Amino acid sequence: MKIAMQIEKNWPVVILCGGQGTRLREETEYKPKPMVNVGGQPILMHIMRTYAKFGFKRFILCLGYRGDMIKQYFHVREMMDNDVTINLSDRSKDKVHKSTAGEDWEITFVETGLNAQTGSRIKKIEKYIDTDHFLATYGDGVADIDIEKLAQFHLSEGRMATLTGVRPPSRFGLMEIEGSKVVKFKEKPLINEHINGGFYVFSKKVFEHLKAEDNFVLEKDALPSIAQKGELSIHKHDGFWHMMDTYKDYLDLNKMWDSGNAKWKV
């Protein structure tokens, strides 16, 4: 029986926000994928709220493609969402009339390069990690995952890295067939095997296995060697998980939100 570990909620959350989102070009031609809206707000906000729900409110955003738009969004968000009084003679007297308390988050924006791969981006934020462990995820996936349980699992396993294994629905529906006749169509089944769904927890030791070169890929160049050393755990999550990889994914997530079926909603 494993004992629940005490989690320090000051662990930073590293979010990979730098990719160009080429398979979602309808939305990413002029904006980074994390800024693509789901339910009227960037998917990045949905991801950050998932972590904040469990008390993890320190974020490090790895920027790349159109990273200036992410900085600008957070810089002006309070002014855009609330009534504002501007004193043109003394801007220090400007006031934002908040209707709600808003988020109490700390966000560090790091320019990690236009063409950097995932492992490179994480390596480049090493100097901002001031705790023994940190969390990490992609800027385009949502889930109804319990982040605290994930963090506790990581500590209890005692390994260098933990990834979240998920079982997404197949992109293809099944048919029930009798002879040459199609009897009915079945719902798209869940994939039997777990795949890497992101939502990582890392020990700082992981930086010894990463390189800052732009072509260094976390999933291909780091995780296999970490696994070979017996230092990679999998936390299985059989609940909701969905990436926004294509335009169809974008439409599906917005449809879920509009129909009140957004299982990841905080």
Please specify the SSE layout and strand pairing:
Blueprint lengths: L12 E5 L7 H4 L8 E2 L2 E2 H11 L4 E6 L3 H15 L1 E3 L9 E3 L8 E6 L6 H7 L8 E6 L2 E3 L3 H11 L3 E6 L7 E5 L2 E6 L8 E2 L3 E4 L14 H11 L3 E6 L3 E3 L3 H12 L8
Parallel strand pairs: 1-4, 1-8, 4-7, 10-15
Antiparallel strand pairs: 2-3, 5-6, 8-14, 9-16, 10-13, 10-14, 11-12
Broad shape: globular
CATH homologous superfamily - what is it?
A: Spore Coat Polysaccharide Biosynthesis Protein SpsA, Chain A
> Can you identify the CATH class?
Alpha Beta
Distance between the termini: 31 Å
Q: State the share of residues found in helices, binned by percent.
A: 25-40%
Derived structural class: alpha/beta
What is the annotated CATH architecture?
Answer: Alpha-Beta Complex
Number of domains: 1
What does this protein look like?
- The protein has 266 residues and is α/β, with parallel strands linked by helices.
- The chain has one domain (13-258): Spore Coat Polysaccharide Biosynthesis Protein SpsA, Chain A.
- 27% of the residues lie in helices and 26% in strands.
- The chain contains 7 helices and 16 strands.
- The protein has helices at residues 25-28, 43-53, 67-81, 118-124, 147-157, 218-228, 247-258, and strands spanning 13-17, 37-38, 41-42, 58-63, 83-85, 95-97, 106-111, 133-138, 141-143, 161-166, 174-178, 181-186, 195-196, 200-203, 232-237, 241-243.
- Strands 1, 4, 7, 8, 10, 13, 14 and 15 form an 8-stranded mixed β-sheet that branches.
